[in-house]
Amino acid sequence: MDLKGIIGIKGKGGLFKIISHPDAKVIIVEALEDNKRFPVTDPYGISQLDSITIFSTGDDLNLSDIFRNIKNIESQNPVPDPKGDEKAIVEYFRTVAPDYDANKVYNSHIKKIISWYIILNKKHYFEELDNKTESASSEIDSNN
29-64 pLDDT, tens per residue? Predict the structure, then answer.
């Protein structure tokens, strides 16, 4: 799953794709939800999704692994509304990241992760997972 070039921006909802680096001081981004472009001048307010990890009781969890876990159970266990029941959201997150450190990962983080997943899923960022799963299933079936 390639999250390279996808970012969150502090103080702005949603996710953004880096379009260009015209110079070291300004980055042009495009909102994934409405394709509007604008410059970002504060690189310290940017979180690159491919480098985000979540605290756990063991090794930290990569965000991409959590997204993969969500995708794998989505058909049996639908993704909750991030604005919905907080207990249900936390319980759901526990199924996709069972070792997460509840003392360091706040409910607001969990809601943001789920929101990000929903945005990326709508933009078909996880189709490669579906294709790999289908290919693996076809290969297993053809070997039987």
Answer: 999 999 999 998 887 889 999 999 999 999 999 999
pLDDT greater than 80 at residue 135? no
Pair 72, 126 in one domain: yes
**Is 41 in the same domain as 66?**
no
What does each C-alpha distance from 16 to 21, 110, 113 come to in angstroms?
14, 19, 14
Check residue 24 and give its pLDDT: 66
Domain membership of residue 142 (yes or no) is no
Task: Name the pairing type of β-strands 16-23 and 53-54.
Answer: unpaired
Average pLDDT for 99-115: 96
How many Å apart are CA 134 and CA 142, to the nearest integer? 12
Kind plus residue range of the DSSP H or E element containing 15: none
Number of structural domains found in the chain: 2
CATH number at residue 75: 1.10.10.1650
Alpha-carbon torsion, ordered 130, 109, 93, 3, to 10 deg: 20
